[in-house]
Amino acid sequence: MHNRANRGLIELFLTLSAESSNAHHPAREFIRTRYGRVVRQAADRLREARDASEVRWMDDDEIEQQVRALYAFMDGVQLQWLIDPDVDSVAVFSRTLAMIFKDWTGHDEVPVGSAVGVAHA
C-alpha cells in the first residue's frame, strides 16, 4: 500500500485535516477544497458505475453519503495505524472494501476496467 511507505505524509495530512476543523486555521480552505474535489471525483465514478448498471441503484444523495463514509473510513484506519503500527491497515482496507463492493455490486469480485473498479484503483 502506497500510504504505508509514506508515514510522514499521512501524519501531516491527518494532523492538518484535524486542525483545519478550526474555522480560523490557515489550511481550512485547502482541506475543504481537497475533500470536495476527491468526494466529487469518486461520486462521479460511482454514478458512472450506477448508470452502466455495474452497481446497484443509488440516488445521488446515497452516492455522496457512501463516498464520504468511505473516505472517513480510510482516514480513520490510517489514524489508527499511525497510533499503533501493528494495525494491519492493508488487511482492514481489503476486507472492508470487499464488503462495500459486494454491497454495491452483489459480486465478490469487481470487474477490472469497470467504473467502480477504477474508483478504488
Counted beta strands: 0
Sheet with the most strands? Answer: none
By secondary-structure content and strand pairing, the structural class works out as mainly alpha
* Rg: 16 Å
Terminal residue distance: 11 Å
Uncertain stretches: none
What's the mean pLDDT score?
90
Backbone shape: flat
Order of helices and strands: HHHHH
Instruction: State the helix count.
Output: 5
Oligomer: single chain
Strand content: under 5%
Quick structural overview:
By secondary structure, the chain is mainly α. It has helices at residues 7-19, 28-51, 60-83, 89-105, 115-120.
Task: Please give the structural blueprint.
Elements: H1 7-19, H2 28-51, H3 60-83, H4 89-105, H5 115-120
Helix pairs in contact: 1-3, 2-3
Characterization of this structure:
This protein has helices at 7-19, 28-51, 60-83, 89-105, 115-120. The mean pLDDT is 90. By secondary structure, it is an all-alpha fold.
Keywords:
single chain; 121 residues; mainly alpha; 69% helix
